[in-house]
Structures are given as C-alpha cells and as structure tokens.
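Researcher: We plan to redesign the surface later, but first we want a full-length starting point. Tokens attached.
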C-alpha cells in the first residue's frame, strides 16, 4: 500500500528570496560581527573574549593561562566561529601599538608594530586581562546589564558589558560590514573623561566646549597630529573625516633619528621605501639607513645624510610626502546605538548616548544594591526577633514536628525570616550576635537611605557618576602621546632638486646631436664630431637646471640635462627623443633656472624676452613659442641673468645695434617687436644678451674683435633703429659671444 506525503511549501520569486536572504545576512554582519556597541565599545567577539576570560578567573592579578584555553571557551560556549579569527581578535586587544588601552595582557609573541600578524600560535602564548579591563567587568554581577542565551541556549551571556568609561572612544576600532564600515580612532582617557564629565554637568554644552577638553584623537604610537583644528572640528561635527599623522624625529650627531611613527605604520616598510628611492638614485642626499629599534626604543630608525650640507628639513619633507612617515588615518564614527541601529554619530551625540547608557547602568546597580540591602534588613529583623526570644525558638524547634509555620504564627515573621532563623548555626546563638545584628542594621539602614536619596535625585546621581569617572581617570589615565602640531604641507622634492648639482656644458652640433661635458672649461670646438658634422651651439649651467632646445620653426622643447650622454662620445640625436616638424632643424639650447631670462629672435628682425619656464614643454612635439614668420627662421636663444643687461644684434650687412633689454616686451609666446631696422634683403644673423659691463666678442670667419662696455657706446641706440656699421673685415659676422 503506497503512502503519499504532502509537503507544505512556500513559493517566492527569486528576487524577493535573494533580497530577504541578503538583508538578513547584512543585518547579522552589522549587528553581530563588525560594528561596536556605543555602551561598551566592543564587538560581539571582543565582548565574549573578555567575558570568557573573566569567567576563567584571568584577572590582572591572576596567573596567565594558555590563549588556546580562552579561545576554546569562547568558541565552544559563546562564539561558534573559526578559532583563528577569534584568536586574531584577541591578539589585537593585546597589542599596545594597536589598542590605546589594551584589554588583554599577553605573554609571548603577540606580534610587532612592523608585522602585527607575526604573532605565535595560541598554543604557545599565554594571557590574562589587564587592570583596565576591570572598567568593563567590575559591575557585571550587580544587575547592571541584560543577559541573553548563548547560541545553543545552555548558558547566558551579557548583551553588553557595564563600561565605567567610554571605551568606544578610548580604544576605537575598525570594521567592515555590508554596505558600511567603521573607523574610530583611539583617544586619551583623561581627555575623554574630562569631556564626558563636562557634558554630564552641562548638558547644553556645544561641540567647541567639548573639544576644549578633547581636542583630537591620541594614538598609541605617538607621532604628531598635524591636521588643522578646523578639520578636526569638522570630523567631530559630522562623524566623518581624516586625521593626518606625521612621524617625529630628532637630529643626533648629524644623523636623523625617527622616534615615533604614524598609527599602524611599519618601520620596516618605511625603511624599504626609503631604500627603494636610494636604489633608484632618487635620494642622493642619503648615504645610509639603520634600524636601531629594540625593547627600550621600540622605534628608532636612523637616516644618515650624505654630508652636513644637506638640508634636513627639506629632506624630511620629501620623505613625509613620498613614504609612510606621514599618513592619513580615516575616521568614521559608526556605532550601534542604544536603539540597536547602526549610525554615524558626531562627538556630542556619541558622548550623550554613552552617558544615557552609563546613567541607566548606575541606576540599575544602585537599585540592585538597594534590593539586596532591603532584603538583608528584612532578614536581620527576623534574626533579631529570634535572639530576643531565643528560648522559645529553641523550644519550638525541639518540640514541633514542623516548627516553621508555628514560628511564623507565634512571632509574626515571614517565610524568608523563618528560613533564616532555622538556618542559623549553633555557634551563632551567642549574646554578642545581638550587638552585631544591631550594628549591621544601622549600617545597612544608613546605606539604604543614601541609596534612596541618590536614586531620587538626578543631581546626586550625576555627581556619583562624575566622581566614578574622575576616579577611573586618575587610576588608569596617562599623558597624551600624539602631539598636536601645526605643520606646513609636506612637499616632495622635484627630480631636479634631488639631482646632484654639478657644472656642465651642453653642446649641440649642426646635425642636432647633443651631449653634456662636465665643467665649464670645455673646448667645444675641439670635441670629436661625426663626419660632416660640427659645432653649432652650447650652454653652460648645472646638471639640475632646466634645459630648453629651440628649432628653426620657433618650437621649444624641454630636456633633462642630467640624462644627456657624456661628451666623451659624439652624443645622441635630439630626434631620438623629440619630434620636430618636418624640415625643422635645431638652432640652439638654453640652460639655467626656470626664472632665467631668455631672448628669442627671428631672422626677420623681430624678438621678445621670456623665461625658460615659459618655454618648457612636456610634449615631444614641443610648443610653439616664437613665430618667426614666412621665409624666416628662429635664431639661437640667448640668456642673461643680470639685472642691468642689454641686447646686441647684428645684421647680414654688418650693422651692430646694442639696446637696453628693458625695451623688449615680456611674452610667453608670439612674434615679438622689431629689434633692428632692416633693409630689403637684409636679415638678422646673430643676437647676444649680456650684462652691461660684460665684453662682447664679434666673430667673423677666423677673425674676432672685442667690444667693452665703453666701446659699445657708439653702437647703442633705441629699439628698431639702424645701429652702426662694424669695421671693415666684419661685414660678414657669423656669431656674437661674451668674454
């Protein structure tokens, strides 16, 4: 006989089922794993670890036990998850470089600041609670918190711990949930206690009043907080922001010693970053690195400058900008509130909500104690009746089969009082016990009155809470570690700043081949050139100066002088790294600081003054700087750094004109103004900018002549004038120079 079974089932659209399942998972991760509770500042796994350790008797005064023992209790009784994840959460609470006020006192290898996850296995390490953990556990058995069943319903665990201090701010924490995260930086206990007490006593206090006591986070690793006060205020006002933390250093015997690193920064990683720059020759001012960190000096990184001429502040500013010596620490004050919902809270709301939690906790503690006192007074009242009628009590116990109801009826006592009398030991039936009972009654009566007065007065309750916070701050507080300092923004040195500054001479050949010779005393004409090639132009400067090349169409190009090939060879063609227009040829180079004045001119007689910075171009095709015009070409640029300077120009007919450089327009690009009056068919053949007191050299074939400042008076004139004819034999000038 066949039996059929009908199964009840519920049909749901796939999207509805997936949405519900994902939301359930998201809420579980948010509420039961990733976010801390505003009351005790702990995530569930952290709370369970602390509670399990207290149940194992691992107080700060006890002998530590294997961490595996604690982890076993946690995952076996309260937290059915992986042992490695549970142990890692325990390790974090024991690391003094992670927690501002650690909750676990670990013995053995619990990781280092360089590698926080290098801790030993739990079978090797031992642990116990720290003294500070008592602020979370001291009131646990005093009716202060709600209890809930564990995952299998066999045990009860606290829903939260009765924190005596705002641990949510003191140790902070990070967590990634589904669709949200939390990043709460640690703070100083004394400052948090002062701000909390101020808010307790002045509920209307605004954010500025609180920040007068609590100006910024306080990281366990010290270093400097350089975030402007306005940005920190914005962080506390919104619950979101960033804290910029910078390493601190001192100079000892010419060496830079870094003695504090930003929060969660590895010293080994920083040294690796600096060594990488040294290997890439991007840090020539550093000659050596050492890690001298030890037990007494947890952070001592030594940077040795190459010489005592190195600007230490500039070097450190570069390292702050390019390594982990400066770091932005995110802040996102996202916690689970008293309403059980996650929310990003500002500082005032966070402290206000914690005070609400603390006030309720203290009230529950006082009510619990009051109930105990009242119950004890009730029992003492019954015991006193027994002592006053001790003979009758003994007679009833000896003669009655069930003395309890008879005793209750005879003396008018309650069931509880009768049980207390019947449970008395014979040795307590002494005359002195009556005096002890009356003494205890007086003490408990006074305590009862005090408890009732405190519970009935908000002022007294606030005073009690404030006193307890002050006492804990005095017992567990310490000085601020992270100094608040205003610093300028760190700026990385440019490539030119990092290069060694050496005198060089850049040489350009007629075919566009370029190279650099060390020093300024170089015979540029005597260098070795390729067959059919020869010297065209040169420029003197330093290896970290800006180098500009100009082509015949007036386009300018930027080059890295320190990357040029040595003058021992024949150089490299500029066309290998630049893309000039078809038919264009390179006419000259300029080398110097970005602000160096450079004169550009065309063979048509027009020109203007500019700077090397205006001529710079990062494009291989360059930029159009000078517009020479039709059937004209750009001439070699001429630079001058003297304030009182003049420009000498010579025409194809041998006319020389010397004019004041101030008469030229200052342009970033263009055609410029007329420099000299030219006749039909005449062109400009050479220009030379020079200081007024310098000597001008005129080259014509193998001949040359020099003109000192006074000798040039005859050739001086206003811009766009004709100038004066040079002597016979210099009607065909090839170049101008400076002696």
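Model: Full-length starting sequence:
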């Amino acid at each position: 006989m066949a039996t059929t079974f009908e199964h009840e089932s519920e049909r749901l659209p796939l999207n509805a089922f997936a949405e519900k399942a994902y939301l359930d998972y998201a809420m579980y991760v948010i509420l039961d794993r990733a976010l801390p509770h505003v009351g005790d500042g702990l995530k569930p796994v952290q709370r369970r670890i602390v509670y399990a350790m207290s149940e194992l008797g691992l107080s700060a005064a006890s002998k530590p036990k294997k961490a595996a023992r604690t982890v076993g209790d946690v995952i076996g009784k309260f937290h059915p998850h992986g042992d490695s994840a549970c142990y890692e959460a325990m390790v974090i609470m024991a690391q003094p470089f992670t927690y501002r006020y650690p909750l676990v006192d670990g013995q053995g290898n619990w990781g280092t600041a360089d590698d926080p996850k290098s801790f030993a296995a739990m079978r090797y390490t031992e642990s116990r609670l720290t003294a500070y953990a008592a602020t979370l556990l001291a009131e646990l058995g005093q009716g202060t918190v709600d209890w809930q069943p564990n995952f299998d319903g066999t045990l009860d665990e606290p829903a939260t711990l009765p924190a005596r201090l705002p641990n949510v701010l003191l140790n902070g924490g990070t967590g990634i949930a589904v669709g949200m995260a939390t990043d709460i930086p640690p703070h100083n206990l004394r400052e948090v206690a002062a701000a909390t007490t101020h808010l307790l006593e002045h509920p209307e206090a605004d954010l500025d009043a609180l920040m007068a006591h609590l100006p910024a986070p306080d990281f366990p690793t010290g270093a400097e907080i350089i975030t402007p006060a306005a940005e920190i205020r914005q962080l506390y006002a919104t619950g979101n922001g960033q804290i910029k933390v910078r390493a601190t250093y001192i100079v000892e015997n010419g060496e830079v010693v870094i003695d504090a690193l930003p929060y969660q920064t590895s010293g080994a990683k920083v040294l690796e970053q600096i060594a990488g720059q040294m290997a890439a020759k991007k840090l020539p001012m550093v000659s050596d690195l050492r890690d001298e960190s030890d037990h007494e000096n947890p952070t001592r990184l030594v940077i040795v400058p190459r010489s005592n001429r190195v600007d230490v502040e500039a070097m450190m500013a570069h390292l702050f900008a390019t390594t982990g010596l400066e770091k932005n620490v995110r802040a996102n004050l996202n916690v689970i509130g008293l309403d059980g919902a996650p929310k990003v809270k500002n500082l005032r709301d966070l402290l206000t909500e914690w005070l609400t939690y603390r006030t309720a906790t203290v009230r529950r503690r006082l009510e619990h104690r009051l109930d105990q006192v009242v119950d004890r007074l009730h029992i003492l009242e019954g015991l006193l009746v027994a002592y006053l009628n001790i003979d009758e009590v003994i007679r009833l116990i000896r003669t009655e089969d069930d003395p309890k109801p008879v005793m209750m009826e005879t003396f008018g006592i309650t069931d509880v009082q009768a049980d207390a009398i019947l449970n008395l030991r014979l040795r307590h039936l002494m005359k002195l016990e009556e005096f002890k009972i009356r003494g205890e009654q007086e003490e408990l009566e006074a305590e009862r009155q005090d408890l009732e007065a405190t519970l009935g007065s908000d002022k007294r309750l606030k005073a009690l809470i404030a006193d307890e916070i002050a006492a804990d701050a005095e017992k567990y507080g310490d000085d601020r570690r992270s100094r608040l300092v205003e610093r300028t923004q760190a700026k990385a040195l440019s490539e030119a700043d990092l290069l060694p500054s050496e005198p060089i001479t850049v040489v350009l050949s007629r075919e566009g081949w370029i190279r650099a010779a060390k020093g300024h005393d170089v015979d540029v004409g005597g260098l070795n050139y390729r067959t059919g090639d020869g010297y065209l132009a040169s420029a003197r400067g330093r290896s970290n100066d800006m180098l500009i090349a100009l082509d015949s169409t007036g386009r300018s190009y930027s080059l890295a002088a320190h990357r040029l090939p040595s003058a021992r060879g024949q150089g490299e063609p500029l066309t290998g790294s630049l893309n000039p227009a078809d038919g264009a040829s390179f006419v000259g180079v300029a080398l110097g600081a970005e602000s160096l004045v450079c004169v550009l001119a065309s063979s048509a007689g027009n020109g203007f003054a500019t700077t090397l910075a205006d001529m710079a171009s990062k494009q291989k095709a360059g930029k159009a700087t000078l517009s020479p015009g039709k059937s004209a070409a750009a001439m070699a640029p001429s630079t001058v750094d003297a304030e009182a300077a003049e420009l000498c120009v010579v025409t194809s007919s041998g006319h020389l004109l010397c004019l004041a450089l101030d008469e030229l327009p200052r342009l970033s690009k263009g055609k410029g103004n007329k420099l000299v009056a030219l006749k039909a068919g005449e062109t400009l053949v050479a220009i030379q900018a020079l200081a007024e007191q310098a000597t001008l050299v005129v080259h014509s074939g193998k001949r040359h002549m020099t003109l000192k400042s006074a000798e040039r008076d005859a050739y001086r004139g206003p811009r766009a004038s004709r100038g004066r004819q040079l002597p016979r034999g210099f009607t065909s000038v090839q170049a101008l120079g400076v002696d």
